[in-house]
Amino acid sequence: MAAGVAASSVHILRAQPAQKYKTALIGSGWWGMNILRTAMEAGQSKVVALCDVDDNQLNPAAAEVEKLSGDKPNKYKDYRELLDKEKPEIVIVATPDHWHALAMIAAVKSGAHVYVEKPISHTLNEGRAMVKAARANNRIVQVGTHRRASPHNRSGMEFLKSGKAGKIGMVRAFVHYPGGPGRPSPESDPPQGLDWDMWCGPAPLRHYNRAIHPKGFRLFLDYANGQLGDWGIHWLDQILWWTDEKYPRNVYSTGGRFIKKDSTDAPDTQVATFEFESFTATWEHRLYAGNEAEKTNIGAYFYGTEGTFHMGWLDGWTFYPADKNKPVQHEDAKLNNPDQQNIRELWTDFLQSIKDNKPPMCDIEIGHRSTSMALLGMLSYKLGRSVQWDGEKELIVNDPAANKLLSRPYRGPWQYPQV
Ligand SMILES: NC(=O)c1ccc[n+]([C@@H]2O[C@H](COP(=O)([O-])OP(=O)(O)OC[C@H]3O[C@@H](n4cnc5c(N)ncnc54)[C@H](O)[C@@H]3O)[C@@H](O)[C@H]2O)c1
Fold it and tell me: How many CA atoms lie within 13 A of 353 on its CB side?
C-alpha cells in the first residue's frame, strides 16, 4: 500500500511540466505588470522580454520579474525589435490606447497570440483592422475585459439571460467619481529615460506633462477616449454580453467640461444613449460630486418587468424584485488582488483557447464591438449630433463627416493599419 502511494507520487512528480510559452510584455506600467504577474503565477510563461519606452517603468518591471520568477527578460524600447529578435509565442499589449492597434497587429503578424488591453483601439477602423489581422494570422487574441470572467458577473448574466428580471426595456450604465476642478499641471521636459516621441508614436506629439504619463493619458483625447473609453467599455461590454443584438442602431452623446480646470481635456460630464431594436441603453459619468446620495457609483442597472438588477463591481450583483413581497437577491463579488480584478480567470481561459485553438471568452471581435460602442459615443460627442450606425458595414449612414472620424491621420512615419 505504502509502496503503491510512493509509486503514484513518483508518477506525479515525473508528469510532463506544463508547456512554457515564451512571453513578452509591451507596456510595462501599472496594468501590464498586473497581467504579467498573473501570467507568471499561472506557471506556463517564461518571460523572455519586456518593452517600454520609459526606463523608469521598464527597469523596475524587469527587476520584479527576475525576483518573482527567476527569468531574466531582455529589455527593449521598440516593440518591433523585440518581436523580431525574440519571436515570443505570447505577447501582452498594455500600452496606452493609441498604441494598441499597431502593437497588436505587429505581434500577431510575428506569430504571437495576444492578450490586448481594452479599449482595443483609439478609432473604430483600427479595431476592424485588428480583428482582420487576428483572423488572417490565425492567432488567439484575448481582450482584457476581465469582467466577463468574474464569477459574480457570470452568475448575474445567467440570472438575466434566464429571464428572472423579466423583459428588460432599459439599461443604465454609469461611473461617478469623486473629485473636482483640480489644477493645471505644468508642461516640462520629459524625465530622463523616457522616449517621449516614441510614447506619442502615431498620435499627435504634445509637450510632455506629468498629467499624461504614466497613467493619466485616459483623460487626454489624443491618446484615449476619456471615461467612456476607459470605464465605459467595461459596462457597455456587459450590455452586449447580455443582449442578442450585436450593436446599437443610433447613438447620441452630450456632455462637456463644466467643472474640471486641470490639464486634461476629456469630458468631466457625459451622457450617451444607445438605441437598440428592443431596448435603450444609456451611459453616464461625472468626475465630481461623489456622495452617498446614490446607492452605488458604478455598474449597470437592468430594468425589467420583474424587477431591477444591478450588476456591480466591488458590491457584486443585487436584484430588487418588482413584487415587494419577494426577497432581494444578492451575490458577492469574488475578486483578486491587487486592484480587485479577475485577470487570473481570463488568463486561464486565454491559455485554454491557445491549447484548444478555439476563440477565447473575450475574443477580439467581441472586444471590437464593445470598444465600438464607446468610440461611437465619443464620436457623437465630438460631432455634437446623433449618428445612425450600420453595424454590418461598420459605417455611419449618410454622413461623410462622421465617417471621417472612424479613422484619424497618423503622425509619420507611422501608418494607419489597413482595414
Ligand atoms: N482591464 C482593465 O481593467 C484595465 C485596468 C487598467 C488599465 N487598463 C488598460 O491598460 C492599458 C495601460 O494602462 P496603465 O494604467 O497600465 O498605464 P501606464 O501608463 O501605467 O502604463 C502604460 C505603459 O506603456 C508604456 N508605453 C507607451 N508607449 C509604448 C510603446 N510604444 N511601447 C512600449 N511601451 C509603451 C508607457 O511608458 C507606460 O509605462 C490601457 O489601455 C488601459 O486602458 C485596463
Answer: 23
Closest-CA residue, ligand 1 atom 9, reads 117
Q: Kindly state the average pLDDT of the residues 230-237.
A: 98
Give the CA-trace dihedral at 96, 148, 83, 24, to 10 degrees: 90
Q: What is the distance in angstroms between the CA of the first residue and the CA of the last residue of the chain?
A: 65
At residue 86, what are phi and psi to the nearest 5 degrees? Answer: -95, -25
**What is the C-alpha to C-alpha distance for residues 298 and 366, in angstroms, rounded to an integer?**
22
Q: What separation in Å is there between the alpha carbon of 359 and the centre of ligand 1? A: 24
Using most ligand atoms within 8 A of CB, pick from 34, 35, 53 the residue to mutate for ligand 1.
53
CA 35, CA 349: separation in Å to the nearest integer? 13
Q: Which atom of ligand 1 is nearest to the CA of 230?
A: 43
Helix axes 364-383, 233-242, angle to 10 degrees: 120
Domains within the chain, CATH numbers bracketed: 18-147 (3.40.50.720), 151-338+364-404 (3.30.360.10)
**Which atom of ligand 1 has the smallest separation from the CA of 201?**
31
Pocket residue to mutate for ligand 1, from 33, 34, 38, 52, most atoms within 8 A of Cβ: 52
CA angle 360, 236, 405 (to 5 degrees): 100
- Residue count of the chain, please give it: 419
Residue of the CA atom closest to atom 11 of ligand 1: 94
Mean pLDDT over 368-373 rounds to: 98
**pLDDT-based confidence at residue 6 (cuts at 50, 70, 90):** very low
Ligand 1 interacting residues, C-beta cut-off 6 A: 26-32, 51-54, 57, 79, 94-97, 99, 117-118, 144, 146, 198-199, 201, 213-215, 230, 341
> Is the pTM of the predicted complex or chain greater than 0.90?
yes
Residues 337-365 pLDDT 10s: 999 999 999 999 999 999 999 999 999 99
